[in-house]
């Protein structure tokens, strides 16, 4: 491998890594506050991408406006999902495991609803020409999108931090993360805050989905399964519930996938295996993830 | 009271379900299993278009009405085996048409063989689909020939002397075709090192930049990517974005409108091998098929539609020659198929149950697949 090729691999890795990081933020944020793994996150990605797709195709919206609509509607879908699939269970005092099963059910439901409404064939996602243009840096070729993506990830990281740590609602969210009943006693409207958290998480999913579709412009109702799963794992490796951890985990996973092939091209078919073996090793040394907190179980 | 009524309705519904699939003396049940959802959905749906058209034009056999039972195998190997047994046990089909995707066909095949129901494959091209299975036949050529077509194209038309291969390691079709292409290309050049690199990805992968960067370092003059349309379209797109301008070649699984929709300007010039082109009719039946297809659907048929059309008609032809709807007799008649006039050419079954036919090369030009030549069987 020459140095040029190494840098090209590095650029590819940054690309994939920032995409994973972006999606993992939404995953980890919902978990950090509600202690619920929203397995439908991968489907919410695709919901966002499809709304943007149809906004451009059917309503002839300018692409940026369609993206904004998709993010708003994505948030709405997430809130409705919470209303239908999670809140009834929570209000009956169901254990967390039931909520998890409900989340998996919601994921399957959305996949199959998509298959019925949209059909299983790939759709080609519109790419604004600016994003697809390539830039030559020496012998390394990258798309403009490569520079946009990390910036978006950092901006979103900033927004999430502001909302969670600097706003009043964020304070309520953090209180909720500590203890539901006490938070309620402090006059926090739990249902409202949870709905708000879901809206935020789903908006992040929609942004992630749009970015994913811009990079890999072939979308279908099952396209969210794999990125959803991978970003969940990225969030766990980074320490689930920890937002900078999710970014780190996502980045690491993307880099590992690319570098695994770069160094072992003959084992390219085992790409996921190579990446996940490394992740298992990391987890066996740091069971709570790279930046995960030590949780003391209350007895 | 209400509960009792509900129970009655439920019982009636159950009975309806049970009897809706049973065969009556005046009808012949034919099953179809195709991937109508999942990564191969386009292939399954294109094939189904052809089957439905054939059923519309030829709705009876031996004076009995033909009933089609269509099952979606969801591009899933386990589901493929399940759909075949569902068709046989629940729908009592006498013969089955399917399926796009060699891995799916190899999963459904043994179930049909055990039950003694013949299957006519439309487009699964991997040799092992029919080899060793007395009940699986197909209307298409097989991959050793397809690999030869593209190797010949790379060597003679493109003049390439160094090629690289990128295969989908999760698909028997892709691994098989990569192998046969390599064999044929090395035969042309006489130099085993003329295939400079082989690397892999998996179905559902979306990022191929690492593999492409690796292959670029080996300096090939062309790349053969025998994967399915969605993956290869993304792969070629990413290759162009990485500044890799060399020709790309694909197999018949690239033929889908999605390939061009997703790839757009990036897939211009990509050449693929396939079974048939509406631009080059080979028999009288081809012209009839193309006209009827355009009238029904409003666009030109793909090779898969043509193969679905032929597969359905091959089964009807076998039932007619057997004079009975007994599955065993249909199997024997299918094995004896000789110069049957299909839309994709004259079909004769060899001893393994494969059709021996002319191959077609298509090129993407101005956003369309354009006929670029035919290759006769060796």
Mean pLDDT of chain B: 91
- Cα radius of gyration of chain B in angstroms: 22 Å
Low-pLDDT stretches of chain B: none
E-strand count of chain A: 4
CATH topology of the largest domain in chain B: Rossmann fold
- How would you spell out the order of helices and strands of chain B? HEHEEHEHEEHEHEHEHEHEHHHEEEE
What is the subunit arrangement here? heterodimer
Give the CATH H-level superfamily of the largest domain in chain B: Response regulator
Shape of chain A: globular
* Secondary-structure arrangement, i.e. CATH architecture of chain A: Orthogonal Bundle
Task: Name the structural class of chain A.
Answer: mainly alpha
CATH first level of the largest domain in chain B: Alpha Beta
Low-confidence stretches of chain A: none
Helix percentage of chain B: 40-55%
| Largest interface, chains and sizes | A-B, 41 and 36 residues
Number of DSSP strands of chain B? 15
Main sheet attributes: strand count, strand direction, barrel closure of chain A: 2 strands, antiparallel
Helix count from the secondary structure assignment of chain A? 12
Taking the alpha carbons of the first and last residues of chain A, their distance comes to: 55 Å
Summed up:
The complex is a heterodimer of chains A (299) and B (378). With 299 residues, chain A is mostly helical. In chain A, 73% of the residues lie in helices and 4% in strands.
Looking at this protein, list some descriptive labels:
heterodimer; A: 299 residues; mainly alpha; ABC transporter involved in vitamin B12 uptake, BtuC; two-stranded antiparallel sheet; 73% helix; B: 378 residues; alpha/beta; Rossmann fold; 2 domains; seven-stranded mixed β-sheet; 12 helices
Task: Summarize the helices and strands and which ones pair or pack.
The complex is a heterodimer of chains A (299) and B (378).
Chain A: H1 3-34, H2 41-57, H3 63-91, H4 96-117, E1 123-124, H5 129-132, E2 134-137, E3 140-143, H6 145-165, H7 168-178, H8 180-185, H9 190-215, E4 218-219, H10 225-238, H11 243-263, H12 271-285
Antiparallel strand pairs in A: 1-4, 2-3
Chain B: H1 2-20, E1 27-34, H2 41-57, E2 60-61, E3 64-72, H3 77-89, E4 95-97, H4 102-115, E5 119-121, E6 136-138, H5 143-157, E7 163-168, H6 172-189, E8 195-201, H7 209-216, E9 222-224, H8 229-241, E10 248-250, H9 257-263, E11 271-274, H10 284-297, H11 303-322, H12 327-335, E12 340-342, E13 345-347, E14 359-365, E15 368-375
Parallel strand pairs in B: 1-3, 1-4, 4-5, 5-6, 7-8, 7-9, 9-10, 10-11
Antiparallel strand pairs in B: 2-3, 11-14, 12-13, 14-15
Helix pairs in contact in B: 2-11, 3-4, 5-6, 8-9, 11-12
């Amino acid at each position: 491998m020459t140095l040029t090729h190494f840098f090209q691999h590095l650029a590819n890795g940054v690309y994939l890594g920032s995409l994973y990081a972006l999606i993992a933020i939404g995953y980890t944020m919902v978990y950090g506050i509600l202690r619920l793994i929203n397995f439908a996150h991968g489907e919410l990605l695709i919901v966002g991408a499809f709304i943007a797709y149809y906004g451009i195709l059917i309503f002839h919206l300018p692409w940026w406006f369609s993206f904004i609509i998709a993010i708003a509607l994505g948030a709405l879908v997430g809130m409705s999902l919470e209303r239908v699939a999670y809140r009834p269970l929570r209000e009956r005092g169901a254990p967390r495991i039931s909520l998890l099963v409900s989340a998996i059910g919601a994921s399957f439901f959305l996949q199959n609803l998509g298959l019925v409404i949209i059909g299983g064939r790939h759709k080609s996602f519109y790419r604004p020409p600016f994003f697809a243009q390539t830039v030559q840096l020496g012998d390394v070729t990258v798309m403009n999108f490569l520079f946009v993506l990390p910036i978006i990830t950092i901006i979103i990281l900033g927004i999430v931090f502001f909302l969670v740590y600097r706003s009043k609602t964020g304070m309520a969210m953090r209180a909720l993360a500590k203890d539901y009943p006490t938070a309620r006693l402090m006059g926090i409207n739990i249902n409202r805050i949870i709905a708000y958290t879901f809206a935020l998480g789903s908006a992040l999913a929609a942004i992630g989905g749009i970015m994913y579709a811009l990079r890999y412009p072939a979308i279908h109702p099952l396209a969210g399964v794999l990125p959803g799963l991978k970003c969940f794992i990225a969030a766990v490796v980074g320490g689930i519930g920890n937002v900078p951890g999710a970014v780190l985990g996502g980045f690491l996973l993307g880099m590992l996938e690319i570098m695994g092939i770069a160094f072992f091209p003959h084992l390219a078919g085992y790409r996921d295996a190579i990446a996940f073996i490394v992740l298992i090793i990391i987890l066996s040394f740091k069971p709570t993830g790279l930046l995960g907190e030590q949780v003391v179980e209350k007895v | 009271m209400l509960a009792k009524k509900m129970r009655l309705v439920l019982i009636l519904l159950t009975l309806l379900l049970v009897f809706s699939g049973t065969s009556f003396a005046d009808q012949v049940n034919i099953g179809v299993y195709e991937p109508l959802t999942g990564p191969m959905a386009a292939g399954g749906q294109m094939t189904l278009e052809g089957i439905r058209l054939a059923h519309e034009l030829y709705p009876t056999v031996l004076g009995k009405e033909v009933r089609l039972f269509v099952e979606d195998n969801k591009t899933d190997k386990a589901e493929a085996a399940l759909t075949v047994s569902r068709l046989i046990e629940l729908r009592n089909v006498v013969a089955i048409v399917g399926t796009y995707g060699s891995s799916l066909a190899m999963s459904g095949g043994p179930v049909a063989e055990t039950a003694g129901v013949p299957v006519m494959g439309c487009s699964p091209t991997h040799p092992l689909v029919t080899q060793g299975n007395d009940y699986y036949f197909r209307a298409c050529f097989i991959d050793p020939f397809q690999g030869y077509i593209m190797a010949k194209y790379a060597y003679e038309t493109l003049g390439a002397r160094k090629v690289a291969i990128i295969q989908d390691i999760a698909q028997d079709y892709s691994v098989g075709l990569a192998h046969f292409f390599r064999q044929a290309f090395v035969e042309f050049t006489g130099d085993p090192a003329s295939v400079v690199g082989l690397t892999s990805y998996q179905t559902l992968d979306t990022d191929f930049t690492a593999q492409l960067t690796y292959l670029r370092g080996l300096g090939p003059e062309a790349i053969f990517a025998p994967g399915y349309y969605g993956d290869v379209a993304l792969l070629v797109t990413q290759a162009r974005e990485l500044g890799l301008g060399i020709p790309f070649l694909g197999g018949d699984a690239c033929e889908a409108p999605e390939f061009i929709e997703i790839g757009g300007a990036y897939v211009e010039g990509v050449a693929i091998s396939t079974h048939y082109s509406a631009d080059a009719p080979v028999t009288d039946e081809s012209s009839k098929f193309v006209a009827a297809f355009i009238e029904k659907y409003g666009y030109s048929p793909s090779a898969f539609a043509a193969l679905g059309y032929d597969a359905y008609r091959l089964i009807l032809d076998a039932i007619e020659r057997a004079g009975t709807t007994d599955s065993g007799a249909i199997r024997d008649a299918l094995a004896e198929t000789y110069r049957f006039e299909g839309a994709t050419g004259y079909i004769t079954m060899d001893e393994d149950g494969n059709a021996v036919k002319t191959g077609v090369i298509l090129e993407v030009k101005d956003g369309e697949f354009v006929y670029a030549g035919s290759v006769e069987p060796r």
